[in-house]
Design goal:
Layout: H1 12-26, H2 32-50, E1 57-60, H3 63-77, E2 82-86, H4 91-99, E3 106-110, H5 119-125, E4 130-136, E5 138-139, E6 144-145, H6 148-157, E7 161-165, H7 177-180, E8 184-188, E9 200-204, H8 250-265, H9 267-284, E10 303-305, H10 311-320, E11 326-328, E12 331-334, H11 342-354
Length: 358
């Protein structure tokens, strides 16, 4: 279930206590310097993972909030008004796009039957009024990778901005902001980054950031948060202008530790391990692997299994064996991480064989 909630490192509780509670409990003065240092640690570790500067990343509570703040900037960046996204995007982002009508923006959807993997489908959907394109790097329901760099290039050629939702990709697939070429990139640490809920993030192209003026601001969006002049607001010169009021600290303290652990293991090693376990799963139930692709360059970290009319039987068998999966319309999602092993895969396959569906 790592596409949903990744598990924290075993020493996370101790690391969290040292980072969050100790400055609070033991410090003679304010804990804020230590707490803000934890946020900077988060930005630095995330920047290393994404091939970005930590200064170009802004903490966000979740992807939807980050997307809403990006959309607030669009009217100031272009006279165009159309926001293009796929019907396969995570529904929460569609809800945000619909509410952006209050900003004078108009959502338009690439039909679900379109092939998001084909940049030509995106090019055909672009118009002279397309202001921004939202593209999801990994389709959560199908485990399919979308060639986001090609889509962002198509948007740029058409004069539109681009934002990538990397929530299902970061931590299991290479995510390099320089190679992708987006104007904005959003993600979350609750899934493959094993950092828990609340530690979302927004990367902003540094060439664009000074032109962005989000409406949802607070004292930590300010160029000088401690100026305390109610009549003088000046945007932070960098990505932190997308921040807000008094920030949460705990989610970023937890996530920073998790990201550092994953960096120490090595993203390439994690990906090789995931592919090997995915291949083992696919080999055990080849007829059920009709949704997610076999090609490592096309599939994400998730394998989708569909047993057709036997799906209820499969669900009961997996649950009885203690195998944690979830079920969407295309089938069951299984997403092995670095701490899963062959025994986990074999446990799932044994349960399916015993039930007569494999």
């Amino acid at each position: 279930l790592n596409h949903s909630v990744g598990r924290p490192p075993v020493d996370s509780l101790d690391a969290f206590a040292a980072t969050f509670y100790r400055p609070w409990a033991d410090g003679a003065g304010e804990p804020w310097p230590a707490w803000l240092a934890a946020v900077e640690r988060f930005r630095g570790a995330l920047g290393e993972l994404l091939g970005a500067r930590g200064d170009d990343l802004c903490p966000q509570p979740d992807v939807s909030t980050g997307f809403a703040r990006v959309l607030q900037c669009v009217p100031g960046l272009t006279a165009r008004r159309e926001v293009l996204l796929s019907e396969r995007a995570f529904p929460s982002l569609g809800f945000v796009a619909e509410r952006a009508r209050s900003l004078g923006l108009v959502p338009r959807f690439l039909p679900a039957e379109s092939d998001e993997r084909d940049p030509a489908a995106w090019r055909a959907a672009l118009s002279d009024d397309t202001a921004l394109v939202l593209v999801t790097q990994v389709q959560s329901n199908t485990g399919v990778q979308v060639p986001v760099a090609a889509v962002c290039a198509a948007a740029r050629e058409a004069g539109a901005l681009s934002v990538v939702d990397a929530a299902q990709a970061v931590g299991i697939l290479p995510v390099d902001v320089q190679a992708i070429g987006a104007d904005f990139l959003l993600g979350s640490c609750v899934k493959w980054l094993c950092g828990g809920p609340g530690a979302g993030f927004l990367w902003v192209d540094p060439a664009l950031v000074e032109r962005c003026e989000p409406d949802a601001v607070g004292w930590f969006s300010h160029a000088d948060p401690f100026a305390f002049d109610i009549h003088d607001f000046r945007y932070h010169p960098g990505a932190l202008r997308f921040w807000g009021g008094t920030p949460s600290i705990a989610p970023y303290a937890i996530a920073a530790h998790s990201i550092e652990r994953l960096l120490a293991i090595g993203p390439a090693r994690i990906r090789r391990h995931n592919l090997a376990l995915g291949d083992r799963l696919r080999a055990g139930v080849p007829a059920a692997c009709r949704v997610s692709p076999a090609d490592p360059d096309a599939r994400s970290g998730t394998v989708i299994l569909d047993f057709g009319s036997a799906n209820d039987t499969a669900a009961d068998a997996l649950a009885a064996a203690g195998v944690q999966v979830d079920r969407r319309a295309p089938g069951f999602r299984l997403s092995p991480h670095i701490y899963n092993d062959e025994r986990d895969i074999d446990r799932a396959l044994d349960a399916l064989r015993a039930a007569g569906v494999a």
